Amino acid sequence: MAQSSKEGHIAFLLTVGLAGWFVPGAGHLMIGEKKHAIIIFITIALTFAAGLYIGSIGVINPVGAKPWYIAQIMNSPAVAAIGRITATGDYPVYGRPGEIGQIYTSIAGLLNLLCIVNAVYWAHLQRTGAFGE
Amino acid sequence: MTTTAAFILATFTVPEHIGVTPLSMLWLLPLVAAISIVYKTTKLPKIRFVHFVKESVVLFGSIVIFMVITALVLCTVAWLITE
Question: What is the pLDDT of residues A29-88, one digit of tens each?
């Protein structure tokens, strides 16, 4: 009984983490933190969109800029779809717009990673009854 | 509607023109704002508008001031080395 409860707890934490990865803020929404979810979604989506606007979708480059791509994919699995389009090399971007676009999109991804970890931690605290202590 | 959507999508396929000028450093400000907001969102268990804005603004200011100080120190070191 205790084993299945523990497994259920881990499954819930995994679901919260995955939800937060699929849609920024969804992890917080799952644990009932609506305000947090809205702020996280708007801020991360705007930062990511600003990066794409400044540097074009070419800043997502799974072939020539793999370390940046790893940070960018933390935004959402949807980034992989953009990566498939840009992997052909049809959207080259150089210079300052490329740098700024890469920094914006990567920081947005890392911020989402922070939010995922935070949502999972809060979910754990809520389930164990230690939240708010 | 389709034309508008196509225009919006097209703006994401061509990079903007941003020169390598001192003014281009101002692009860090929106990023610092985003970092401050998200960080404070993860730190505050309950969000009350005024308190949240105040905390975010203080963090934003702290980051910007620290970056300015770092830039000044680096400029001074570069000046001392090259002079």
Answer: 999 999 999 999 999 999 999 999 999 999 999 998 899 999 999 999 999 999 999 988
Are the C-beta atoms of residues A30 and A19 closer than 8 Å to each other? yes
Using a CB-CB cut-off of 8 Å, the residues of chain A touching B18 are: 54, 95-97, 100
Residue B50 in domain: yes
Nearest to A58 by CA among A17, A93, A29, A28: A93
pLDDT value of residue B34: 97
CB distance A91 to A56 below 8 Å:
yes
Q: Decide if A52 touches B, using CB distance below 8 A.
A: yes
| pLDDT tens-digit series, residues B7-26 | 887 888 888 888 888 888 89
What CA–CA distance (Å, rounded) separates A127 from A119?
A: 12
Number of domains comprising chain A:
1
Would you call A118 exposed, middle or buried from its count of C-beta atoms within 10 A (0-12, 13-18, 19+)? Answer: buried
pTM: 0.90
| Domain tally, chain B | 1
Q: What is the least distance, in Å, from the CA of A2 to any CA of chain B?
A: 29
What the block records as the tokens of B21 is 């000028």
> What ipTM was predicted for this assembly?
0.90
Cβ–Cβ under 8 Å, residues A37 and A19 = no
Asked if the structure places residue B68 within a domain, the reply is: yes
